[in-house]
Amino acid sequence: MPYFDAASAAPLHPVARQALLASLDEGWADPARLYREGRRARLLLDAAREAAAEAVGCRPDELVFTPSGTRALHDGIAGALAGRRRTGRHLVVSAVEHSAVLHSAAALEAAGGSFTEVAVDRGGRVAPGAYAAALRPDTALAALQSANHEVGTVQPVAEAAEECRAAGVPLLVDAAQSLAWGPVEAGWSLLTASAHKWGGPAGVGLLAVRKGVRFAPQGPADERESGRSPGFPDLPAIVAAAASLRAVRQEAATEGARLRALVARIRERVPALVPDVEVVGDPARRLPHLVTFSCLYVDGETLLHALDRAGFSVSSGSSCTSSTLAPSHVLQAMGVLSEGNVRVSLPAGTAEEDVERFLDVLPGVVASVRRQLGAPAAPEPVSRTASELVIDSLGKRCPIPVIELAKSIGDVPVGGLVTVLSDDEAARLDIPAWCGMREQEYVGERPAERGTAYVVRRRT
Amino acid sequence: MPYFDAASAAPLHPVARQALLASLDEGWADPARLYREGRRARLLLDAAREAAAEAVGCRPDELVFTPSGTRALHDGIAGALAGRRRTGRHLVVSAVEHSAVLHSAAALEAAGGSFTEVAVDRGGRVAPGAYAAALRPDTALAALQSANHEVGTVQPVAEAAEECRAAGVPLLVDAAQSLAWGPVEAGWSLLTASAHKWGGPAGVGLLAVRKGVRFAPQGPADERESGRSPGFPDLPAIVAAAASLRAVRQEAATEGARLRALVARIRERVPALVPDVEVVGDPARRLPHLVTFSCLYVDGETLLHALDRAGFSVSSGSSCTSSTLAPSHVLQAMGVLSEGNVRVSLPAGTAEEDVERFLDVLPGVVASVRRQLGAPAAPEPVSRTASELVIDSLGKRCPIPVIELAKSIGDVPVGGLVTVLSDDEAARLDIPAWCGMREQEYVGERPAERGTAYVVRRRT
């Protein structure tokens, strides 16, 4: 049963499993104790720290283990901000960071600080100079992911780091998605990662803080991990994390090339196999194993369930699959279609046949979901009954507003206007995206009595 | 090789190991995902929560898993304080709480709040009425351990809870040391625990918050664990923690009685076998598996190393074994001897022979450490050369100041004064304790040009 959601959590790497089992008997005692069980635990911890530091590209004493990537981000950002409180309380982040970064930014704002979100292009990438432009005299910290977790776009870390360095601002790099594939480009001041993304166990994050970077751990004091990560360390998991990071790095070049070819196949063939699909993310500067596309007239949750029934485990940034009813902030920031969004992230070892089978199955699954939703068959019917039309899609969830727009556009003459009333947040993204895909003109939006009015001019 | 430091970390229980292995293959995926691997993970998580909640004595939706007992305390205290910020920013704790609680109190104070430490008796126990007396109109939270981690004294949780209830203040109970032996007495509002203390894996803490208790999680938002514990959950560890808690509970009555008898043997025989030993902690109301004693004229670190060489892994609250150079705050609060402090905490399954062997070995080890330090053989020499004497022990670490006092007391006549100058924090505890053990009069202390002057009047 192919599992294509490695970007959420990778299955345990065999080396991780082996190391975990081996250290269950040696690694349960307190490494701070002086007796033999404690000394053995300390040796394991030290060795794991050295191995992980080597893979990260830092000194062992710059690296601490945290209970998760999320905690590494929360504690790393809080500590770096506090370390430079005298400079100011402003934080710069990209608009497509992991929610742990954006929630840290929101927490800073709630506590009286402020933050700036750096915009990305349609491929999800930060522009050169964008960080330089966002830095202010009171900026305490900037944060940028090494690669995006939803669309796979690799960020210009070295350039952003240089811009930050020139301004004397430390840069924190969230390397959660890329660390398996190689070290982060030079120039970072703080780095975070998460073991279960590379096939290590859950329960282990990394937080590296370069010597000389001001850092003031927040929250109650604790002696563990240089005072930067409170709580008794989960040693068997830490040992497994370090061992598996080393293992995936040894396989990275070969496996990366293999998965990159499989992903290229998906990127190329999905738009050919499935009508009205937008493949999103930077086409060239990307992670080897991850591809994301959105399907017009498709409801993400229904599509995921249908793919699950067909035996494929994938993820989605569509609004319908989250509890917030808003499409993924990443797709929003990119301004791309969010309907029927599918993220395929291949774990190491993914078989070519499984990818082929996915490509076989996908067109039928999408067509069936579209049929269920009553999506219009392309091309849309060409009739004309009025020069202007208002479609009331209030209370209807994505992708229904877009489907109703598509079905009605033919009812106005070329040059005529269709106004869609919708209170679904995804419409803001998906109606302009539909216009782009259908070569219709998106005029704009205005507040309506209920929800928002989206205005489209028929062009073809 | 007998390991007698279960109170730091218990070796992995066989059931924990089994459950961990079994769930490595089923429990790596994200339980928030809709596909089959995610659903399987969710089932495991739900089942573990139900089992742990049953052992704790709460509803499953009142319980979240945290990455450690320390994080449960940090996050639980911060959330409970924030939930009642309108009432005030005052916290009540006992003086013998775990450092994670005391550090939380210090963090509160640093942020502008305040706290009161409730004193304990010489047995380490909070007095009835002491919590009631410490509560104020602006008290947001009170915290009390179920049992002390260094001396094993069981606290009057039900009484303190009733005092808090009457004042409308929630009580947080740190059950880290006792949860293996049974549920906490009724009346608590929040409860924390740590799996590696009961033979579960590291990486799992428990935080239970009763329905109706105001709780506002602090730090950046996160959807996991009802918003109360950020980060991807370590499911195999959580499953192992829950399974082993159930297992140790089933064994608790039998194993508790067996260990209680072994501990009683140590409590009774150590003072008979080793001269000048003080067994500390409440003699009756205590954990079944833990006993602590202090040895006059002995340096804790040397004693621990000697016991380690003899094959015994034990812990110590003596100043010489910690990085802070201050004796354990627990021994300080109890006002008992801290020199040569040894905590023996027996893991489940400890063999009677190992305890017997410990009792065989201990007298020789202590005698040898005392010889190395030049400790006086009892009784101290009786000569008299001056009516008053000043001993300069500045720069000398415990137990040297006490040893020098003991060697010199005979140099003044009965009724004469000996003043010890010392800059070792432990002297404040150990000189009065020595006076008590030797029936000499402890007159008091005063600041000296360097360090502190401790004045003793010879009585015998």
Automatic annotation (TrEMBL), chains A, B:
- Coiled-coil residues are none
* A GO term for molecular function: iron-sulfur cluster binding
Q: Which domain of life is it from?
A: Bacteria
Q: Which family does it belong to?
A: Belongs to the class-V pyridoxal-phosphate-dependent aminotransferase family. NifS/IscS subfamily.
Protein's recorded name: Cysteine desulfurase/sulfurtransferase TusA family protein
Checking Gene3D superfamilies in the record gives:
Aspartate Aminotransferase, domain 1 (3.90.1150.10), TusA-like domain (3.30.110.40), Type I PLP-dependent aspartate aminotransferase-like (Major domain) (3.40.640.10)
Q: Which organism is it from?
A: Streptomyces telluris
Record key words, sorted: Iron, Iron-sulfur, Metal-binding, Pyridoxal phosphate, Transferase
Instruction: Quote the catalytic activity from the record.
Output: (sulfur carrier)-H + L-cysteine = (sulfur carrier)-SH + L-alanine
Every copy of the UPF0033 domain together lies at: 391-415
